[in-house]
């Protein structure tokens, strides 16, 4: 995707109704030794960084659960659209773990340090409407019968981006991302 000049916007969605991404398989992770866990977390972090570094706008269409690494994936995207009924949370602390794929850095950029600490310390799950009110998602929409309301809104948003000058959009993303690091 990074080098395909025809790609102007990327929308991430799930093919599983009611789930955006439920995060890592903790049963599988429990069977890993420390070295395997370290390798797994490093690969996951690298994947999230690759998503964030895509030169075109990325949109997460959250039509269901986005927990742990699933929310970290959404946080790696530039924009997030959620169904009001979607459930999101960095729930790792409820399992004796820590968000390991960038959530501790990306969540505070969206909601502020204090609220990010509260959400991570408590492992609380929030719905799409609450996520919108705190700035975690750009849009919260009522879920439809098909279960793809966030995806439909994400497509509308992508269609708003498409007619814009592609180099200007890419440079805007780059300037904003570099400015955050200053």
Please characterize this protein's 3D structure:
The chain is of the alpha/beta class. It has a single domain, classed as 2-enoyl-CoA Hydratase, Chain A, domain 1, CATH 3.90.226. The protein contains 8 helices and 8 strands. The protein has helices spanning 26-30, 34-53, 69-76, 103-111, 113-122, 128-133, 149-161, 166-180, and strands spanning 10-12, 19-21, 58-62, 65-67, 79-83, 87-89, 126-127, 139-141. The protein has a 4-stranded parallel sheet with strand order 1-3-5-8, with helices on both faces. The longest helix is centred in the N-terminal third of the chain and has 20 residues, at 34-53. It is globular, with a radius of gyration of 16 Å. The protein starts with 9 loop residues before the first strand and ends with a helix. The model has no long low-confidence stretch (mean pLDDT 93). This is ECHD2 protein. It comes from Asarcornis scutulata. InterPro entries: ClpP/crotonase-like_dom_sf, Enoyl-CoA_hyd/isom_CS, Enoyl-CoA_hydra/iso.
Write the layout of secondary structure elements.
Elements lengths: L9 E3 L6 E3 L4 H5 L3 H20 L4 E5 L2 E3 L1 H8 L2 E5 L3 E3 L13 H9 L1 H10 L3 E2 H6 L5 E3 L7 H13 L4 H15 L2
Parallel strand pairs: 1-3, 2-4, 3-5, 4-6, 5-8
Antiparallel strand pairs: 6-7
Helix pairs in contact: 2-3, 3-4, 4-5
Shape: globular
Give the CATH H-level superfamily. 2-enoyl-CoA Hydratase, Chain A, domain 1
The helix fraction, in percent, is: 40-55%
Rg of Cα set? 16 Å
| Biggest sheet descriptor | 4 strands, parallel
Question: How many structural domains in the coordinates?
Answer: 1
Please report which band the strand proportion falls in: under 5%, 5-15%, 15-25%, 25-35%, 35-45% or over 45%: 5-15%
Class per helix and strand makeup = alpha/beta
The N- to C-terminal Cα distance equals: 27 Å
Strands in their spatial order, largest beta sheet: 1-3-5-8
Query: What is the ordering of alpha helices and beta strands?
Result: EEHHEEHEEHHEHEHH
The CATH class designation is Alpha Beta
From the 3D structure, determine the CATH topology.
Answer: 2-enoyl-CoA Hydratase, Chain A, domain 1
Family: Belongs to the enoyl-CoA hydratase/isomerase family.
InterPro entries: ClpP/crotonase-like_dom_sf, Enoyl-CoA_hyd/isom_CS, Enoyl-CoA_hydra/iso
GO biological process, one term: fatty acid beta-oxidation
GO molecular function, one term: catalytic activity
């Amino acid at each position: 995707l990074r080098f395909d000049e025809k790609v102007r916007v990327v929308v991430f969605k799930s093919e599983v109704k009611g789930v955006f991404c439920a995060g890592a398989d903790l049963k599988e992770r429990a069977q890993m030794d420390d070295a395997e866990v370290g390798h797994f977390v490093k690969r996951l972090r690298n994947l999230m960084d690759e998503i964030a570094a895509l030169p075109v706008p990325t949109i997460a269409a959250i039509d269901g659960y986005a927990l742990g690494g699933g929310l970290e994936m959404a946080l790696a995207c530039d924009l997030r659209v959620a169904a009001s009924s979607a459930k999101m949370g960095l729930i790792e602390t409820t399992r004796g773990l820590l968000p390991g794929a960038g959530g501790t850095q990306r969540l505070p950029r969206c909601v502020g340090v204090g609220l990010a600490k509260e959400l991570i310390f408590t492992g609380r799950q929030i719905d799409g409407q609450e996520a919108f009110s705190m700035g975690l998602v750009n849009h919260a929409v009522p879920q439809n019968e098909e279960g793809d309301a966030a995806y439909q809104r994400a497509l509308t948003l992508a269609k708003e981006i498409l007619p814009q000058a592609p180099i200007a959009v890419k440079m805007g993303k780059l300037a904003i991302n570099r400015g955050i690091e200053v």
